[in-house]
Design a protein that fits this description.
The chain is mainly beta and 174 residues long. The chain is built from three helices and seven strands, in the order βαββββββαα. Strand 2 (18-28) and strand 3 form a beta hairpin.
Length: 174
């Protein structure tokens, strides 16, 4: 399924009307990266000004482990809740003009053909869900700072390089 949804009918309905949209391996195109797959469900609800999209989506992401430098893939779980405003009135086809300084004018929009494109919003949610220091597994051992051996795969003969600032604590712990 595409990440573009025609919401013309929903925009013509009464406030509170809604539609459920399910995504099963929809493709989110990303600059300089492999495309991500999107799975989940959104409820699109007509508001007094536009469409409110809310729901849980899972987006695939490729990472490099911050400890052992091994590439791996995960699913990022995001909770979407955004308002999208139309640029054209669905009843008369006239352009809707938002006043300068109007906070609603900065909200994501629905194009002139009443198509809601979720790509930009999902890119932002995906970016916000990305871990700062991704780990391939919670107990990743990382790399030896001396010889570079991946401690998840093998051991090395390097002497441990212990920080002398922790010596007093080591003495207390025995």
């Amino acid at each position: 399924m595409d990440l573009q949804i025609n919401v013309a009918e929903l925009l013509r309905e009464n406030v509170g009307a809604n539609r459920t949209v399910e995504f099963d391996a929809a493709v989110l195109e990303l600059e300089d990266q492999e495309p991500s797959q999107v799975n989940g469900k959104l409820v699109l609800t007509k508001t007094d000004k536009g469409i409110w999209a809310a729901g849980r989506l899972d987006v695939s992401a490729d990472h490099v482990c911050s400890r052992c430098l091994v590439p791996f893939s995960t699913q990022l779980h995001t909770e979407m809740a955004d308002v999208f405003l139309p640029k054209v009135d669905p009843f008369n086809g006239e352009k809707i003009r938002y006043e300068e300084g109007d906070a609603d004018a900065d909200i994501l929009g629905i194009d002139d053909h009443h198509v809601l494109n979720l790509s930009d919003a999902l890119r932002q949610y995906r970016q916000a869900a990305m871990p700062l220091a991704p780990l391939c597994k919670d107990d990743c051992e990382g790399l030896c700072p001396g010889c570079g051996v991946d401690w998840n795969v093998a051991t090395c003969e390097c002497e441990p390089n212990l920080d002398p600032r922790w010596n007093k604590l080591r003495e207390l712990l025995g």
